[in-house]
Amino acid sequence: MTRARFQTFDDPSHAKGPERIEALRAALREVGADGFVVPRADEHQSEYVPAEAERLAWLTGFTGSAGTAIVLQEGAALFVDGRYTVQAPAQVDTAAMTVVPVAETTPEAWLGAHLTAGQTLAYDPWLHTPDGVARLERAAAKAGASLRAVEQNLVDAVWAGRPRPPAGRVAAHPEALAGEAVCEKLARLRAALGEGGLDGLVMSDPHNLAWTFNLRGADLAHTPLALGYALVPVEGRAALYLGSPDIDPALRAALEPLADLHPRAGFPEALAAACAGAARLRLDAATASAALKGRVEAAGGVADVGPDPVTAMKAVKNTAEIAGARAAHHRDGLAVTRFLAWLDRTGPVSEIAAVEALEDFRAASGELRDVSFPTISGSGANGAIVHYRVTRATDRSSQPGELFLIDSGAQYADGTTDITRTVAVGAPSPEMRARFTRVLKGHIAIARAVFPEGTTGAQIDALARLSLWEVGLDYDHGTGHGVGAFLSVHEGPQRLAKTGTVALKPGMILSNEPGYYKQGAYGIRIETLVLVEARAIEGAERTMLGFETLTLAPLDRRLIDLDLLGESDAAWVDAYHARVRDSLAPDLDGATRDWLAAATRPLAEGVSAA
Fold first, then answer.
1. What is the pLDDT of residue 608?
2. Kind and range of the H or E element at 370?
3. Mind listing the pLDDT tens digit for each residue in 262-287?
4. pTM of this structure
5. Statement: residue 71 has pLDDT above 80
6. CB 496 within 8 A of CB 530
7. What domains lie within the chain, and their CATH numbers?
């Protein structure tokens, strides 16, 4: 029987974009508004949203994971970051909607130029954070316009056949993998709330709900979340309000001593009750909606908007989670290495064939729960689209002289993975080898970095770019994001980026993924996951930290320019390859083991072939 795949290759079409935009404008006229804001968000600010919340994709055809559309009676714009400046214009009917890079113009600046005095901009308060609404209010006020919340989302009002809310099974996450009991997590959380002078927490982030209560769900693709809320008072029982009625009896039994389980429909009434006595409740600044803040205040409570303490706790992995991550990366490394050997032997393949083969290699372990995000499989010029998603319409086969970029990840019960490898198809050009080597030098600079306790990701990000900057090159995305433990592949608050202001701590897992993209030609990215760890340095006057590389899979030696790489970086590659070989070879069959031996031999033996 054919196994159902975790990803599809449907072709998102913008053919209906103009008529849907006009339908939205008609809805605006009915409510007496002049514009509407359509973020790529659900009421939890999730990265992956349920089908019912894919309003931006339905309206515009754009399928990226981040973006905002603003539709006025005269004009419409879609705002995207540097990851999507190539993808968005290809998916959107640009005659009906202008694609605007946020690096050039923010939504607020655009509104200032396009709203006129006396106009009204409408928004759905469940899809915007309080800070997001404040920014919109300032932009509208500057133009002499006003901002108005609507009770029904105006896209929903014109979306015929809108999918129903998800109701996936909710099950317990074993304590042996979680590494900490729910009662211990709640005790830590309550202590943090008490220290902050708070009476309780309104938990709006499903990731934090899953971590705190040691549960996993199936409401979203690629991330094992149960959508819902939790109320955690400093004193008294916690309560969960989940959208799915399909709750494993074992989870009910495990939580019974500590928390009550309720249908999501009961949350508004419970929230109002929690506000009694002017209770001060923490609302997560990153995921709580403006609607939640309004309800707390209307019920007489004090909405204290700030970080959910769970976010920082979750970011630091415990001993069991780290052991699970290592096991998951070993398993994943075997699958990726088998795939790379297959790709090398097979020769030119289509992008879709590569996606399917890699998923099959992972599934063969019997442990694959899902992919951690839709695989980015880009040959030639498609590799230059940072978050390219292959469809049957865009699928192409690799050709000799091109590069093939494949960025993928897996969800296993013991860990989440994310890896990118760029491989040569045939003989690469000198330019390709030079730019790959510069990206590799940046990758190695991060992997080898040693830094004092308290260092932030922003302070480290530049290390990955220095070799590219030397020749006037760069890339328009962060160097690394946090990663969860059988949770989101993109987890905060830690990150390696210009905006990474959180100090790195031992136990945090991040990606290390510098890149280079030559539009219309090729893309290069090298990604492994790294674990922040303490470093003992003789004579050190400060506590020092560094990274352990978790990901195990060979780099393409054919793309390395040894003269440019330098001796110390070449030594790092050889040591990494030796570790990959020693770790994986015992579990590989003869042909793949032989391929790995050739792919990881010392660089001094030549780089012309694997």
1. 57
2. strand 368-371
3. 999 999 999 999 999 999 999 999 99
4. 0.94
5. yes
6. no
7. 17-158 (3.40.350.10), 171-310 (3.40.350.10), 319-605 (3.90.230.10)
